[in-house]
Design goal:
Layout: H1 7-58, E1 114-116, E2 129-138, H2 145-156, E3 168-172, E4 181-186, H3 188-195, E5 203-205, E6 208-212, H4 213-216, H5 226-241
Length: 277
């Protein structure tokens, strides 16, 4: 027969059982909380590790004092300026179709003073209208007026010149007051002043044939020499005075008309200083 347990003993046993259950519950709760914090801490560590990896990917690692990489600079771009196109063709014309002085032509200052030749050269022909003329040269050109006058007379008395037509002849006189017209060799500045409103210096004004000294002293390559070119300037200017009109190249490989501008492109014609070559 089982002995009976007193009530007091049963109550104490119940309390011990309840205490044991509570202890086990607390231990289980503590263990569960520890596992939660461990999980949270692990997740945080994983996030920090991931952030560090991303940062390492976007930020290059450096060492104190020196860059991790050496960057070679791009070569400088060299820009070569395009050359300015030069103007080609016939130089700007004047009343006589001759060019105005360029930078390559003699730059002679104008004195405004002129020396008139004191020599006389009679006409060589006995037929044709007699036209008397005088020659003057600006003093700043350092050319002797008498020498220039004799050269001009030699041109106008040449049978290839205008006198070759038999309609006119020329007489160089000593005094300007006795002359029908004047041939003036002037520095560029003076020539331009006399020739106004023409853009360049070589022209005919009234009874004066003005030849720009810059043109006189700058022979184009198409002419064989200074004398030939200067003969052209005289005949071209006197032709204007006589009322001759401007001309063009009639046929290639033929002499250019003396009234054609011949300082530039001859359009296939040959340089020619004479009205009747």
């Amino acid at each position: 027969m089982t002995p009976s347990v007193p009530p007091t003993s049963r109550w104490q046993a119940f309390r011990r059982s309840l205490a044991d259950a509570t202890g086990r519950a607390r231990q289980a709760f503590a263990a569960s909380r520890t596992r939660v914090w461990v999980s949270v801490g692990g997740a945080a560590l994983l996030l920090l590790a991931a952030a560090g990896t991303v940062n390492a990917m976007v930020t290059p690692a450096t060492r104190a004092g020196n860059p991790t990489t050496s960057v070679t600079p791009l070569p400088a771009i060299s820009i070569t300026p395009m050359p300015t196109p030069s103007t080609s063709g016939t130089p700007s014309g004047s009343a006589s179709g001759e060019p105005s002085p360029s930078a390559k032509e003699p730059d002679v200052k104008s004195s405004g003073k002129f020396a008139t030749a004191s020599v006389a050269v009679p006409a060589v022909n006995s037929s044709g209208e007699l036209r008397s003329y005088s020659v003057r040269v600006e003093t700043s050109l350092k050319l002797k007026a008498n020498s220039v006058a004799k050269q001009v007379a030699g041109v106008l008395n040449d049978p290839r010149s205008w006198t070759g037509s038999g309609d006119v002849r020329f007489d160089l006189v000593k005094k300007a007051k006795d002359a029908d017209f004047t041939i003036t060799l002037a520095a560029s500045g003076s020539a331009k002043e006399i020739c106004k409103p023409e853009p360049a210096g070589t022209c005919v004004v009234g009874s004066e044939v003005v030849i720009d000294a810059a043109s006189w002293q700058s022979t184009p390559e198409s002419f064989s020499g200074d004398s030939e070119w200067q003969s052209y300037l005289v005949n071209h200017g006197v032709g204007q005075l006589l009322g001759e009109t401007a001309a063009k190249c009639p046929k290639k490989a033929k002499p250019a008309p003396v009234m054609m501008p011949q300082a530039g492109d001859l359009d296939g014609c040959l340089a020619n200083p004479w009205p009747y070559p």
